[in-house]
Amino acid sequence: MASESLKPEMSKRSLSMRVSFLIRAQLARGKVGVETVAAQLNMSRYTLHKKLRQEGLTFAALLEQVRRDQAITYMKDKTKPLVEIAEQLGFSELSAFSRAFKRWMGTPPAEYRSLRLS
User: Fold this and answer.
1) What is the number of alpha carbons within 13 Å of residue 27 lying toward its C-beta?
2) CA separation for the pair 49, 81 (Å, rounded)
3) Cα–Cα distance, 81 to 117 (Å, whole number)
4) pLDDT by residue (tens digit) across 53-102?
5) 3-state secondary structure of 13
6) What pLDDT sits at residue 45?
7) How far apart are CA 4 and CA 61, in angstroms?
8) Distance between CA atoms of residues 24 and 68, nearest Å
9) What is the pLDDT of residue 2?
10) 0.90 exceeded by pTM
C-alpha cells in the first residue's frame, strides 16, 4: 500500500537506508516516485531532498544504487529475460536498462550473463 508507514524497526535506521528500502518496495510494484517515498516518510519532497543532502546523497543516487543491486540479483536467474528485468527495475525500454547496466558494470547485460555467470 503506497500510504503504508514504515515498521517501527525501520524508523531507527538512517534516512538513506529507509529510502532505499522504500525504493526497493516500490520497484517491486512498478514505478518509483520521490513524492510517494516522501509521503511514506511523512515529509515533503523538499524535506526529503534536504535531509538526504545532509547525508551526502540524492534520491536519484539511491534509486540508481538500488536498481544496480537488484539488476545484479535478477541477472543471476538466467531464465529471466532481460526485457523483464528492465521492466522490473522501472526502465521504460530495454535499451535504457542496457545503457545503465553497461555504465554500472562496464559490460552489456547479455555479455555479463554469458561471461560472468557461466
Assistant:
1) 25
2) 34
3) 15
4) 999 999 999 999 999 999 999 999 989 999 999 999 999 899 999 999 99
5) coil
6) 96
7) 24
8) 11
9) 42
10) no
